[in-house]
Amino acid sequence: MVTRAHFILFVADQARSTAFYASVLETVPRLDVPGMTEFELPGGAVLGLMPVDGINRLLDLPHAVQAGGGPRSELYLMVDRPDEWFGRAVRAGAAAIEPPVLRDWGHVAGYALDPDGHLVAFASDAQEL
Fold first, then answer.
1. From the CB of residue 48, how many other CB atoms can be counted at a distance below 10 Å?
2. Sign (positive/negative) of CA torsion 59, 65, 68, 71?
3. In this structure, what CATH number is given to the domain that contains residue 12?
4. How many domains does the chain have?
5. How far is 88 from 122, CA to CA, in rounded Å?
6. Cα–Cα distance between 29 and 48 in angstroms, integer?
7. Which pLDDT tens digit goes with each residue over 13-55?
8. How confident is the model at residue 114, as a pLDDT?
9. Which residues have CB under 8 Å from 112's CB, separation 6+?
10. With contact defined as beta carbons under 8 Å apart, do 78 and 122 qualify?
11. Whole-angstrom Cα distance, residue 82 to residue 89?
């Protein structure tokens, strides 16, 4: 079961994008630190803004993706068993990037590329495992 969804846009200028979405959404970010801004969305979803160079430092992406400047978006799904979701995505045709492991932000997260090259992350809070 998906418990929360994060839609992450990889942006050229985090401050500019933060100002844009703050104005459009008429709200302030719930998180705004170098490398990530997050806005709460209706229904419990989260909009994240990450500098495009940040994702290329975070993950070892295939050369074909890097050559195009990196992916432009990420669907970050909070789920109950990230390893099962990751495996299901790979069996369905996703390219495995990194299997679920403990990340320094406190989530166990695995990454795959969907058939169109969008990053899909399957994650859970480390304390919930």
1. 19
2. negative
3. 3.10.180.10
4. 1
5. 11
6. 9
7. 899 989 988 987 889 999 999 999 999 988 899 999 888 778 7
8. 81
9. 86, 89, 90, 94, 95, 96, 97, 119, 120, 122
10. no
11. 10
